Task: inverse folding
């Protein structure tokens, strides 16, 4: 009973945010999960109502509220379209942390987050070993998409098709960098993120190539930790704060003008979630986090706004490409034009817009692991919109979206390549 009262007390801390919801229902029109299930508990106003009832002790079922709260993509569609300005993502992240504190982490998540993710060196070592032996358990299934499937235990993976781990991670093939400002007069810190590092190092190489081409100094330290959003999304605030502190030791006191990432989720997390959720860290660290957050930019934003990359003068190219807007880039940060400029900067490509380019692909990070049936239903809609364009390439600015889209395309037998806009732009550089 005392623990329940403590939980109620914690929920009261966000009471002013909860009461801001006017129950207008605008979130129903944009929530990808509600579109599939039609359940009020799956839409933002339903979740907020449940949290209010729990905080007021009208209902006394934390487990039921947690179940509904965990069934969320955290895509930000509700927040981006809320006429009352309700910070739904802030509410859900804090409430998940409160409820996880009440129940504790499940054993599997505890092992992954606190035993592995919390220790970057161990995480890197385990992933390196896994990359060497993955061929025993997986086999290639779609060369164009670049996907694999399980040789055994496919039922346990629910038939997923997935991108394999890279043979060598980015940090294993690229030396640490701390180069001075070049002709551009700018220096960029490069936060590459876990998925780019371990699954798509070619994206990281493209970022380094374009920085070199434009005379940008680069600070890229080894030992980078996860941005922390997987742990925080599961309510593990302790691991999140540990990872933030570890990254701040690498980036907090260094001299650079901008911190760039090619991952929409990492960009949004460092820019918005770190300052919001790092309340347990020392004030001096929180101050540095706020300073750092003001320097964070998506790589396309940096290239277009700071380095003035522009569309090519030539006519439309012969390679048709369509673009998927990651939720964390467009809805959280308002960035949608810049990635398209990068695509247009390569004269070999012509952009064909898909229907619902900014609709969620259904990934949601851990959502696709816990609710694959729903994730797949949402993802199939995205796949259908991609294929309907007739494009041979689909581009997106989020590695997690690349994984989800790759799964959907591969399972359907589609022959499309999946690329990051910075890769397509990097093809224009001398010698590429």
Result:
């Amino acid at each position: 009973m005392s623990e329940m009262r403590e939980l109620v007390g914690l929920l009261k801390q966000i009471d002013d945010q909860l009461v801001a919801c006017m129950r207008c229902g605008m979130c129903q029109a944009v929530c990808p999960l509600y579109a599939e299930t039609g359940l009020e508990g799956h839409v933002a106003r339903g979740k907020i109502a449940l949290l209010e009832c729990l905080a007021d002790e009208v209902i006394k079922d934390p487990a039921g509220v947690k179940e509904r709260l965990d069934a969320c993509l955290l895509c930000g569609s509700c927040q981006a379209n809320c006429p009352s300005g309700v910070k739904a993502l802030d509410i859900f992240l804090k409430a998940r942390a409160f409820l996880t504190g009440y129940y504790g982490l499940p054993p599997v998540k505890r092992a992954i987050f606190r035993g592995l993710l919390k220790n970057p060196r161990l995480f890197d070592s385990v992933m390196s070993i896994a990359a060497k032996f993955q061929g025993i358990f997986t086999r290639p299934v779609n060369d164009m998409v670049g996907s694999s499937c399980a040789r055994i235990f496919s039922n346990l993976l629910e038939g997923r098709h997935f991108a394999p781990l890279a043979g060598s991670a980015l940090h294993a093939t690229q030396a640490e960098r701390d180069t001075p400002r070049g002709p551009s007069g700018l220096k960029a810190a490069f936060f590459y993120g876990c998925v780019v590092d371990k699954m798509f190092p070619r994206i990281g190489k493209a970022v380094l190539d374009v920085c070199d081409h434009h005379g940008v100094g680069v600070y890229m330290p080894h030992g980078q930790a996860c941005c922390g959003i997987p742990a925080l999304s599961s309510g593990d605030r302790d691991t999140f704060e540990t990872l933030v502190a570890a990254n701040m030791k690498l980036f907090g006191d260094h001299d650079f003008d901008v911190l760039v990432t090619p991952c929409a989720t990492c960009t949004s997390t460092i820019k918005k979630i770190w300052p919001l959720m790092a309340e347990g860290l020392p004030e001096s660290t929180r101050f540095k986090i706020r300073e750092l957050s003001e320097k964070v930019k998506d790589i396309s934003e940096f290239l277009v706004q700071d380095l003035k990359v522009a569309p090519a003068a030539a006519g439309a190219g012969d390679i048709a490409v369509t673009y998927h807007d990651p939720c964390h880039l467009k809805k959280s940060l308002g960035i949608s034009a810049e990635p398209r400029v990068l695509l247009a900067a390569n004269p070999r490509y012509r952009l064909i817009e898909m229907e619902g380019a900014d609709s969620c692909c259904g990934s949601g990070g851990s959502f696709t692991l816990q609710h694959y049936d729903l994730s797949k239903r949402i993802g199939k809609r995205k796949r259908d919109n991609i294929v309907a364009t007739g494009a041979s390439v689909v581009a997106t600015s989020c590695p997690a979206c690349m994984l989800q889209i790759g799964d959907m395309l591969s399972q359907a037998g589609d022959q499309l390549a999946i690329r990051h806009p910075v890769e397509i732009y990097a093809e224009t550089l001398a010698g590429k």
Q: What stands out?
A: The chain has a mean pLDDT of 93. The radius of gyration is 21 Å. Residues 242 and 392 are 42 Å apart (CA to CA).
